[in-house]
Write a sequence for this structure.
């Protein structure tokens, strides 16, 4: 084999290895850039988050890998699985709102939040979402129970934080058919967060309860 042919084969070998590695390297670079961009957005949003001591607030604790989807429960958890999704819109109720930080938490199947010494006061079922470019969000969890004294309907607490708006509450998500939903809650539904926060759960093809809740921002 002459030197020219050997060099040619070596060149082709290196070219083949580069072709295999290039997509992986590009994906890694893309993932790194996306992560950096996400961290930059969160850093900006957290400037509008309430302090960690603020009652019921939690945007400040958002992890760096927050996405528009999350799962609050595990397969080992008892309770009925449910999936809630929707779109966050600007104040006009029509334009999707990207990069809205959502914090939410709810009780367990007996109506309690944190019950052990090392557990957060909001309990295990808490999480964060960052709406995508289309304003979408989605989370899976188990259906919460009303407080043990049965004074209030089962609900999911939710706060919103944007680059122009300090972290603030919206109406809690309630579940249609719950006899504990008060007349006042029905009359004021949608005043903070727009649309109807009383969702109707329906079983999907995957046998998981599903519901949609769209959210409307307000003028800062």
């Amino acid at each position: 084999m002459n030197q020219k042919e050997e060099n040619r084969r070596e060149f082709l070998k290196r070219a083949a290895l580069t072709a295999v590695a290039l997509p992986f390297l590009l994906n890694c670079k893309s993932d790194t850039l996306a992560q950096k961009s996400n961290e930059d957005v969160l850093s900006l949003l957290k400037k509008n988050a309430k302090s960690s001591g603020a009652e019921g607030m939690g945007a400040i604790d958002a992890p760096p890998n927050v996405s528009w989807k999350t799962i609050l429960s595990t397969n080992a958890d008892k309770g009925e699985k449910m999936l809630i999704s929707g779109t966050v819109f600007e104040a006009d109720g029509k334009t999707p709102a990207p990069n809205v930080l959502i914090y939410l938490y709810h009780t367990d199947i007996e109506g309690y939040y944190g019950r052990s010494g090392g557990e957060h006061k909001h309990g295990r079922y808490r999480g964060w979402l960052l709406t995508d470019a289309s304003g979408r969000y989605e989370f899976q969890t188990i259906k919460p129970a009303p407080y043990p004294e049965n004074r209030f309907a089962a609900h999911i607490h939710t706060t919103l934080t944007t680059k122009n708006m300090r972290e603030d509450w919206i109406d809690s998500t309630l579940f249609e058919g719950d006899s504990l939903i008060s007349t006042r809650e029905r009359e004021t539904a949608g005043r903070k967060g727009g649309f109807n926060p009383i969702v109707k759960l329906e079983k999907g093809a995957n046998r998981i309860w599903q519901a949609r809740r769209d959210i409307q921002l307000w003028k800062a």
